[in-house]
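@channel sequence for tomorrow's demo:
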Amino acid sequence: MARFGAGGLILTCVLALLLAMPVLGIALQDMNQLAEFHNHALSPWPDVRLLLADPAAYVRASRTSLIERIYPVQEATRTQKTVLLRWFNEPPEPRISLGEDGHIFLNGGSNENLFGLFASACELAHSESVASSLQSALRYWSEPTRLSGIPTDFVVIPTAATVYADKLPPSTPANLRQACLERMNGRSALLFSAHPSARNSPVFMYPLLEMLAAKGDPAFYPKGNWHPAGLSLQIARNTYLERLGEKGVPAENLRLDRGPAEILLTYGIVWERPLYVLSNPLLALDTHFNSLVRSALAPLFRGDRFITQAFHNARPVLDQRVLMLTDSFGDASAEVFAGAFRKLIQVNLNDLHAGRPSDVIARVRQAIPLDRVIFLIQEGNAQQLAGWR
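structure tokens (generated this afternoon):
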């Protein structure tokens, strides 16, 4: 009986530990990663005073907080979403649209702003007023006294919603689907041309028509990506170089491969799709320049996680030092564009906190000499680009 009693006690303790693991495991998880996983700030634990004032409300608030943190919520949710996607064709979240022929679209920045990205990219960015504002911004940056004659160019990259508007699912609101189709058919106020008429004249480039001409390749703009990659970025870069009177980058290697769909990877779902990998053996990271830039810019950004990259090119098309100011579309574009220049420094402005783009340029120029500035953003941020000063 004693041995049975001891064994029973051990078994009870083991079962209790297993039952407690979902709560005890909360301390083992990174709260920042959990917030990114849920795509929103974690619900705070309710104040204990609420328990006395409204016990039912306290229980509801505690339940919400616990569900978001309970261990292993990430693994369990990932498995559930993978099963729903692969077996029932259900997207991981409402802000993900599953289109035709395996295309996957990010329709909103959050579930609270469904189809907001479609509205920005297909509708709001393409008005005559935005195009006029962009032309005014180009004139502003090209004033001889603005950057001591340094040319400043605007590059606006199309998104998957405009390039593949014919693959959007029926669940897309009719007005937005129609707006995206109009862009895919080549109707946009952003297609105004700004070719350089002199050495330091600005360039405006929206390579929609060039990208549409290549969309028949299933790996051109990876089907599960929010950001373009590989061939799509190479075409955008080469179109820009043509505006400068230059040709493409001869040393590059373009290789067909497979890789995970970017949009699904944010949910931990690995679903491989065809894509192109672009490499340049003459291009290298420039850690020294990157360190100089980060030190100069740190006071303007939130924390130390802001994104910068610096590249050095052993055999550039143009012997220039370039600063590229971008949104997240610049994070992959920077290396591709760097293939054309002696040095390229990219700064992602998404976390710019204490200052304006002009302050970023001024600080970088104090750290290193510059020959050109490029603003590069996705089309949905065209109105924001028009207001950058």
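heads up for whoever presents: Residues 21-71 form one domain.
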